[in-house]
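Batch manifest, entry 17 of 40.
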Amino acid sequence: MKKFLALAMALSMTATLLAGCGGGNSAASTPAASSGSSSSAAASGTTFEKQTWKFACSATENTCWADMGRDFGQMVSDATGGAVTVEVYAADQLTAGNQSEGIQAAIDGTTELSAHSNLIYSAFDQRLNVVSLPFLFDSFEDVDAKLDGAGGQALGEVVESMGLHLLGVGENGFRHPTNSVRPIDSLAAMKGLKLRVAGSELLNAEYTKWGANWANANWSEVYTGLQTGTYDGQENPLPTADGASISEVQKYVTYWTGVYDCIFFTMNGDLYNSLSPELQAIVDECGQKAAQNQRQLEREQDQVVLQKWTDAGVTVTELTPEAIQEFKDASASCYDDFSAKLTPELIAAFTEA
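Output type: structure tokens
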């Protein structure tokens, strides 16, 4: 945990926080990181055509996913002299809450901007699940090195092939398992636990190899399922779990790096290609900054929730090196099992960096 805390503190000292959550379907809020873009309409004298772009994300209005859209919108507005406006639509409200349709809308151009998890993207192209291979990352520093390096570049090529342009890679985070039965401090301790797992073929395979009796269910049903004992536990990044008050019905959380989940921040490819080189440079720069800011805020929230749960009496377990190796060994075959679907080349972009 010390490594996670140290990084979160360093990020907090070296980067500017995003502003708080704003209003609903507008370009609202003024995140502090919005200033400082080197591409400035005022400085260059460039005049841009007035445009309004819709940003859709699967997370709710009060999350750093929506903050990323507001942050991006403010930066682009500043850089274009107010010519470009971004409207934020959280919880995929433009597609009745359907996350896959939220991605499809960005591909079709119904919406211009999208922020969705790689787990949802994998329904379109399974290669984008590569970041959720077991223990692919061992720290936040490792995440940044790989996503901002060869791995992220390889992911961008896959996204581009879908008719989208990748503006940046944000973070949903490491997915930490919780339960109400016992601490998961070893491979044996997970065996037989009834866990709700996100609907991903790769995650299902991982939890099978770790011995859990997993099930898939809509997130809206999970709290009640935990409360009634339908499930012993679930797995999610802490801010997501805390947003659903999971700590009220769970006694234990294992804080680990077993599974990671990222966010692809994309723009419709045809729209991007239609922009002038000047505006393309602006959206690329602002997209990267917004994604980096979102990663920072997600990690800070992760630590806030961890402390909140600890104070509320939830037992936090960190695995010993020996226990980590048990889990790694049990799920190592996932790399071979999913090699054909994820492609050896894409896996190598992350494992050989």
